[in-house]
Amino acid sequence: MKKYSLYGLIRNSFNHQENWPRVWRSLQPKVEYDVIIVGAGGHGLATAYYLAKEHGVTNVAVLEKGYVGGGSVGRNTTIVRSNYLWDETSYLYEMSMKLWEGLSQELNFNLMFSQRGVLNLFHNEQEKRDTARRVNSNRLNGIDAELLNTEQVKKLVPILNTSPDARYPVLGASLQRRGGTARHDAVAWGFARAADARGVDIIQNCEVTGIRIEGGQVTGVDTTRGIIKARKVAVAVAADTSTLASMAGLRLPIDTHPLQALVSEPIKPVMHTVVMSNAVHAYVSQTDKGELIIGAGIDHYNGFGMRGSYSIIEGTMEAVVDVFPIFSRLRLLRHWAGSVDICPDASPIISKTHVKGLYFNCGWGTGGFKATPGSGWVYAYTIARDQPHPLNEPFSIERFTTGYLIDEHGAAAVAH
Amino acid sequence: MLLISCPWCGPREESEFSYGGEAHIVRPKDPDALSDLEWADYLFMRNNPSGRYLERWLHAAGCRRWFNAERDTVSYKIKSVYKISDPAPRGDE
After folding, report:
1. Which domains does chain B have, with CATH numbers?
2. Which residues of A touch B73 (CB under 8 A)?
3. Among A31, A274, B31, B70, who pairs with B79 as Cys (CB 3.0-4.6 Å)?
4. What pLDDT, in 10s, does the model give residues B13-53?
5. Chain A: closest CA distance from residue B2 (Å)
6. Are A399 and A355 in contact (CB under 8 A)?
7. Does A310 contact B at CB distance below 8 Å?
8. DSSP string computed for A25-68
């Protein structure tokens, strides 16, 4: 891997920046690997990277039906935070947050990780009590959290409508100062480059069409580029999880829904934190280019079509304009949807299965991006040692049989 | 926005409806007799196909009656709607 540095940038400027090597290799798949990871999104690539780095497993292929970073890792609203309510979830996301904090240097790739703070507004007395509870819970778990009143929120974000007559009066907010944003594409590219440098094969345009199982043990996968053998197959395909599961005769507690987002025209800096509101199903941040990124809540029907219904974004924009009246005349430039895989308890599954050598990492729903490094780290541990790390042990498929659910619906500081 | 034909009220906008997820999941007659695994399968496990899907809708802001729909989860096209008591329509394949 050619190290990126200021010196390299200056040296290549004499060649009109034309001599940069490929960021990762373009490869034909080998006949057999130790581990096959299905899905070259953020989680799959992070898993490959940590398999190589932490466990020395480098005979790994990451198979991608489209192109690197073409799925949810390129479609999210880039928010990173760890202020979850329940212990199990907060440990997992906080571990991820700690990895984020050194990740640009570690990967030698500018992830534009910006700890600009994440505000979670509350608009009524019950939400205020719930938020106070979550802030207390976060602090007990060693996660930074503050409870702000209306004046303190107004000071941080002057453009907020804090009038008591507002449709959604701002009674206050929780603030996680270490939260913020990261450039989502760069996360995929950075992990891909670092994994490739450690010998991982990233194979694009290679769709898995079947999972081969003999005597309860995975032996490989069928793909659009032929059969590839492996004793361990790890799935990280988000929306298409149920399709992959059905190839192995498994049923999972997952429904796939559209999730929509929008980007406005660029304006001068007006907001230097991320503002989220559970009650109005909206979250807003401003990019370095000046665009506002606005995320909506999910569409309620199952959908893989990468688009949602107008009524959802209409509801979100009504609320956003009420909370931020200054945005009312902004034009929106782009609008899209991703497909998110949601568990009944809004917590992920990072688990072994009853098929030996088959692993699933899924169910991240609307909140997978922030977990990318942590998810990859614990998933790599689970695959390499064939047993879960204490951090992801509670997130096994068995919890739906034992009843030990981790209910982050509504608890997790955001609309699911 | 989807245009959904309620079997009783005719075509109405999606915002009048609420969603009920996968159709034709039959509640076990004797839940006590089930193992935890079987109960979890009934309660939580879903097929979640990409393509043809049989699902439930409630005309919440209309006649307040439940019905089933056959819809494609990729194109979002609704092929047919039918009453809860009707048998599942046969697929093309």
Report:
1. 1-22+49-87 (3.30.2270.10)
2. 256, 301-305
3. B70
4. 999 999 999 999 999 999 999 999 999 999 999 999 999 99
5. 7
6. no
7. yes
8. ------SEEEEEEE--SHHHHHHHHHHHHHH----EEEE-SS-T
| Residue among A356, A364, A360 nearest A416 (CA) | A364
Which domains are seen in chain A, by residue range? 22-75+185-253+345-412 (3.50.50.60), 115-179+256-342 (3.30.9.10)
Cα(A295)–Cα(A263) distance, integer angstroms: 9
- Indicate if ipTM > 0.90: yes
Strands A180-181 vs A32-38: parallel, antiparallel or unpaired: unpaired
Per the listing, tokens 């990492």 go with: A361
Task: Please write the tens of the pLDDT for every residue from A172-223.
Answer: 999 999 999 999 999 999 999 999 999 999 999 999 999 999 999 999 999 9
Helices A42-55 and A184-197, axial angle in degrees (round to 10): 30
CA distances from A21 to A24, A27, A184, A355 (A): 9, 15, 22, 41
* B3 part of contact set with chain A, CB < 8 Å: no
- Cβ of residue A251 closer than 8 Å to a chain B Cβ: yes
Q: Which residue of B has its CA nearest to A240?
A: B50
User: For residues A18 and A4, what is the distance between their CA atoms, to the nearest angstrom?
Assistant: 14
**CB–CB of A252 and B1 under 8 A?**
no
